[in-house]
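pasting for ref
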Amino acid sequence: MPASLLPPIQASRFCSRWLQADSQRPAQLAEVCRQPLHTLDFGALLAAQQGHNTAHAMRRLRNLLLCAIITRDLDGRADLSEVMQSISRFADFAIATLLAECSAEAKSLYGAPVGEESGGEQHLLVVGMGKLGAHELNVSSDIDLIFLYGENGETQAGAGQKSLSNHEYFIRLGKKLIGALSEIGEDGFCFRVDMMLRPHGKSGPLAASLAMLEEYLLLQGREWERYAWVKARAICGAAADIAALQDIVRPFVYRRYLDYGVIDSLRTLHSQIRAEVVRQERTRPEHSNNIKLGRGGIREIEFLTQVFQLIRGGREAELRHPATRHTLDVLDAMGLLEAGVVARLQQCYAFLRNLEHRLQYVDDAQTHMLPQDAAELSRIAQMMGFADSAALLQQLQATRSEVAEQFDAMFAAPDEADGALPDSNAETAEWRAHMQEQGFADAAAAAHLLQALFASPKVSAISAAGRERLQTLVQQALPLIVQHAKPEQRNACLARLTDFFEAIARRAAYLSLLIEYPHTLQRVVQMLAASGWAAQFLNQHPILLDELLDDRLLLAPTDWPQLAQQIATELQQAAGDTERQLDILREVHHAQLFHLLAQDLNGAWQVEALADQLSYLADAIVAAIIPAAWATLAQRHRETPRFAVIAYGRLGGKELGYVSDLDVIFLYEDEEQEAQALYVKLAQRFITWMTTHTPAGILFDIDTALRPDGASGTLVSSVAAFARYQHESAWVWEHQALTRARFCAGDAAIGARFEQIRNQVLCKVRDEAKLKEEVCAMRQRMRQAQRNPDAALFELKSDPGGMIDCEFIVQYLVLRHAAQYPQLTENLGNIALLKRAANLGLIDIDAAQNAADAYRSLRRLQHKSRLQGEERARVPHEEVATESRAIRELWQLVLG
């Protein structure tokens, strides 16, 4: 902010009058202005005001501080933060100091107020609202306060004292405090006090118990009061009462779900404020150009930040800070607003607040209007560092246009869709005709789907406003289905969409989200058109709709180390609350899974790369659960468990799919006498954390059948016992499974020891004939157990020439040749190991390449089938004849 072109004594008539009233004041002012004002010792400065009662001395100190703020700000020595913090800190000091004096006087008259339940002394809880609550006070602002107290009861009146109910006591004390703050004397006033934000407003009692506040917010709290309480901050009061207040207010202000309904509510509130401003401007032209409430003004920036706080604050604690500029920085850090937008809004906010202060500096008046008088406007322009009024107005217009543009981008009413739906009770023929007009070939079936939706019990139970929102969404969705689904797939997409709408019909926030953000509805339709499994997943977890708002989710890969740190931090913050920790893990997992799904449907991933990403996600969840679950064991004997999770199967080979189970075993290395029993408990808790159904769903099903001795073996094994079992007792099929095993998470030293054991076992010299016999026998047993019930279709995974045959070929090659070629023990995946075996001359290069290509093709077909929600991936034989033949030919070459 450039320094004023006018010195403070010329710019501010208030400052000039104050300085000229006493010859000692210039020296006092110069002394105070030597340091940043928010660091001042207000207590010492108040004590220096000798010969005056506290309220009078406070008014004199306020005038000194205001002149100091004006001087440092106009000289360019104080920035906006210093100005707002200084006056806010002084307000806190004045309230606390005067309350202490008023309380002492009240207790001398009536005795101490005592709670009827606790029997403890009660104290007035003073809550700062608005800009005071946010430490963003104006220099000449009113202060918005609410007075509360903990419990009802009576004062303990002594001899000569009058007993009062706590309610009456705190009302009298509140009145006394208001008088001390706002009384006008020869030195003016300290602060004007506004109590209109209290429960029931002007008609409500001046002070309310916490129980009364809770009942009021629960039963009568209005939408606009949620916005007001965002900026609430306790200034004075007992710590227990402050904590209780937070517990009451938080669920009122911040919903546990993503509350997109607030956009329309804020839009309505803003339109009401604007209408009142326009009315005042029309009846009193001198009130035009309101930089706070007018178009593109300060209030619109505050609304822009508050909408994110109210939508997401229930889930994102970082967004509960009351200060506007701090919240803008959080929105930037979280990626909820683009960095460039945040930077411009910060500049606009600073410009408008600085201008607001200069308007108030002139006469210490609470005004937000640009002056009509040319000389006064020129004064303001020079105080802002502009050479003339025209330059100021030009910058103001640019600033307000920027704010208005960003405000409209958030709050502009959604466009109405073309082609109104028939009434839900209309005749079937009318619905059929409408669906035919919309582009649905099987219009009768499409009409039936919509009629069934509006006749369903869930939709019938919602309010008229909810049904209207749902009709709007259906109306907007129909052309999107025609745009994104092939003609033969449109009815299937509509069926998925009606199922989805029925699932969210009673959740107004989700309906509001889709209406307010039409591009989100478009992405939903695209996903449902592309994937039946995506439809099922979205039905189960509609909270993930929020993820579709962010364009970056379709582009940016996940930073897995950063995600791991995020999970660890959130679990630590929820330590002691296992239920919340379970939900955190599920929320993160489902969100990341949804990111990958959206990217996958957008063509961002090849099947192999997607499997890697899904495996990284599973690894991150596994790694997070181990220390968190360990911390819940009361008998743990060390800070960090000597425990590791070993991945087998799809996770071990990094070939995980969207709905894969996790095949794992648990190892430990700990000499403590009770170690095994403790690690069994840890493993059991690990499985519980993974598989427990919570409102957020589950994480993974866990299969531990590959542990030593299978289901009859102990759940965890020591490293030594595992090594002994693998060398002495394991079956060949268990060594086959070991080819795809890897250390997943936990103690890295145990992980290294496992890899050493694995390599030793895989590199054993084996009898070729016996190995071939064992592998073939196991494959035959699997075929008998996994018979294809439909011979007309080819089972991609288990039929002869399918994926399992290719995997068995690779496992055989590893076990047969790793003794001579240890590089085959690397866990590279089937395709890479086939190529490596061919390069080593162990199999024909062309046959290996054909089988590798076939395996890749079958995996893609399996993935496509999974996306459609099919439990068994099967296709016509002729569709995969080439692939099946390539794998069978390699099987014949390798295993006969």
